[in-house]
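Thread: adenosine-5'-triphosphate complex, take 2
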Amino acid sequence: GSLVEDEQALLDFLAATPHTRGLNWSPFTDVCSRWMGVTCNADGARVVAVRLPGIGFSGPIPSNTLSRLSALQILSLRSNNLTGPFPADFINLTVLTGLHLQLNNFSGPLPPDFSPWKNLTALDLSFNGFNGSIPATISNLTQLTALNLSNNSLSGQVPDLELPNLHFLNLSNNHLNGTIPKSLQGFPNSTFSNNDLLPTYSLAPVSPPLPLPPSVSPVPSTVTMKKLSESAILGIIVGGCSLLFVMLALFLYLCCSKRKDKNLVGKGSKRDRSPEKAVSGNQDANNRLVFFAGCTFAFDLEDLLRASAEVLGKGTFGTAYKAVLEDSTIVVVKRLKEVGVGKKEFEQQMEVVGRIKHENVVELRAYYYSKDEKLMVYDYFSQGSVSSLLHANRGQDRIPLNWETRTKIALGVARGIAHIHMSNNGKLAHGNIKSSNVFLNNQQYGCISDLGLPSITNPIVRPVSRAAGYRAPEVVDTRKASQASDVYSFGVLILELLTGKSPVQIIGGGDEVVHLVRWVQSVVREEWTAEVFDVELMRYPNIEEEMVEMLQIAMSCVVRIPERRPKMVEVVRMIEGVRRFDSGNRPSSEARSEGSTPTPIQDIEAQTTQGEILKDVSC
Ligand SMILES: Nc1ncnc2c1ncn2[C@@H]1O[C@H](COP(=O)(O)OP(=O)(O)OP(=O)(O)O)[C@@H](O)[C@H]1O
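Output below.
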């Protein structure tokens, strides 16, 4: 086998299988880096994973197509409309580790002999019309950790399955009869519910742990499930107390620092401060606020410095203030620290940035440069950043960011970055894409802010900072960000929108750092894709396919090798393909769902299996 043969096998499959959604599989693009849903091995020599959930495939899987992918390890055709028998020629896929055919309309018996798939760790054939009995040869799958045959029409007795690694089993909603064999009696009752099985009276041992990663936190399940020792409890108490103390200290500090920043720069009453004094005693008369063409603001440096100001936050490059001018104009002023370039270079960079005008790029209105002060002026976005919209007060009375808005944020930011990449003769990169730099415009599309800062500031590389979660692996000097590293950071932003999780989570008092990209990659590799999505999104029906597509786009942006990442214009096109944007006539089911009251997540979860949750949210 070779990559060329794999490519042909995939094209043959696509040509012979009707589907409702387009796939970007062109013979002229690179299979490994460009083809949606296709993953190759490290050296790009063979296709090892094919994940095509929700593409709208129908009819039987044509023989002698996918079965030619002899290096295939993961095959997912979940949530399609495939029919016919279990493909007999899958017998050739001997290195499969994961097979996911759930939520289709396959029928007929299961393959009598499972021994060809010795490496299988996960097998999901649930929600189909398979009938006949469960073959005892499943016992040959000694690596199997998860088996889901629920919601079929399987009958007969449950075979004695000696599977030492099996942690997840679901045989519910079939027509199985007889008794539950001893080897499987450790699984919870729900594993076997809705069958004709005779009750067993033995005391069931403790059920084995589920291998699924928790969807609410990226902390590995083993961490949370471990029994707490006394010393750990003591640690938590001591830790809790010190945390309380630190929070109190932080609160006092913030109160003090807020008071200090009542006016934009320095202390003193509004009246007796001259601008010269305010800007750290600089006497250079040439220093003035430089406005860009088209800016309608009517204030000068003096007004700005007189404005009452409130600290919005301290970022990598300085502190951002919300300044309310005397005519009640509100602007954001960023006071930069660590500017590593001279005046000329600073001005040149500001001119490049100031020329960029696009509805998805937050405009730089003005800047100021003196020896001791460097300021940048932007419009104020009252809704706050996407970071706060996504992560702030995740409590009871929180208004979740709905799917429509999340996709519009992603599309807006993608268009903004694509525009930046085309500006300045295609030489410009943003360098600091992250959710705290993304705001919403009037139509709720995302806009990217903070352009052009990394290149004029001294390199700041903190391994465990918030920014680190967005930084592409090849970026060691923050001044040398590239368009490809922007694509990576943008991929992380999409993952953040999909999962609702921060890109870096520091747990265990800073000892352990969970990187969102690595976590998502590991979950997707195990094919538990549904587990990565933000639980807040589960309430919106019919979006699963779009979420999966968006996930695939994000995954293509965060590949390790920069050259293999798509260009930003391509990313825009891919996201545009996920939804019908800019049109009032949304697909009917979606329109319905957005107008109606969403189903509370508990109600969906109450319907037992994960498969059912999926069914609820997909078409
Ligand atoms: N134009 C704006 N309107 C409203 N809030 C803003 C605006 N610009 C920045 N902020 C908010 O002010 C805070 C500080 O912003 P700042 O950009 O200084 O830091 P950051 O985004 O956390 O990090 P970095 O300096 O790396 O961009 C953030 O919470 C940011 O969302």
